[in-house]
Amino acid sequence: MGSTFKEQFGAETQQVLTAILDQSQDCIKLLSPAGELEFMNRNGQKAMEIPDFGMIAGKKWSDLWPAESRKLIEGSLDKAARGQQSRFEALCPTMSGKPSWWDVSVAPVYDDKGAITHVLATSRDVSGYVSRRLNDQMRREEAEREVDFAESVAREMRHRLKNQLAVIGSVAKLIARHSETAAEMSEKFERKIFALARAQDLLTVHRDAPISAAEAMVQVLEASGAGEAIELLPVPDARLGDDAVQQLALILGELQTNSLKYGALAPGCDGKVTLSSTLLDGLLSIHWHEDCGMPVEAPQSTGSGSKLIERLGSAGSSRAKIEWHRTGPSVTFHLSTLN
Question: How far is CA 16 from CA 20, 109, 239, in A?
């Protein structure tokens, strides 16, 4: 009679325990000490999309996980064999292949004599939480990249602004010393500002890479409206930095303005301008040859434009030169390149 009661009580206890485990939304697994699957609750099978526990019964729990996660599984089983609990988070697809993230707890199960008989593994689907966390992390990283980019642009703009102000200050002093009236100074200064503005347009367009000397010359000449009247001979393959582009714009702007007013490009003058260049040891030498088509006399005094060319067109030991031949000026100036 007593034996029958114990057997019935034991059977009912097992049924009650199974029913309790089936109520959990977690995936609860009972493993052998070697890590073989002996039990999985019903909601666990549903979460893992396992239609029949018999398909996996007796298999290694680690075999259900992708190769990159198996070290975590094996490590947690080793700890359980030593009587330790562990917890980890890892990606494991369901049986249908749906990627899912799991928060997993692993603990040893003891008998009444203190021996480890089983391992209890509880997994909770945290895919939604991990997805939100990863999205937040991506947004933070994107925001950090944007901040770094903005700081980089700000540093570059501060550097360029300082250089620009230094150039403007130097030009203003030079023009002031060679202008007789405020109106004359204003006109000259305005032309130089426009030339620098064209240089900044070029530098902005080519911010990610240095501009070629050929393209810089073409753009500066076209901006004046006199580019088609100037014969530009083949330009060596050279790259110009910020300072060189600004110098080029100021010098060519000055030469074109003078030519349009008084020289070969002036209205009614059948003249010609040729622009050639050579590259040697990182120095680009540019030669402006102007032929007015008739005899001209060299100016008696040196103006601000000539001083500007001499100052900005010299690099290292190579000095800018302005010479006058029978039919017009010949100017040679030099720019440092990034080659």
Answer: 6, 19, 82
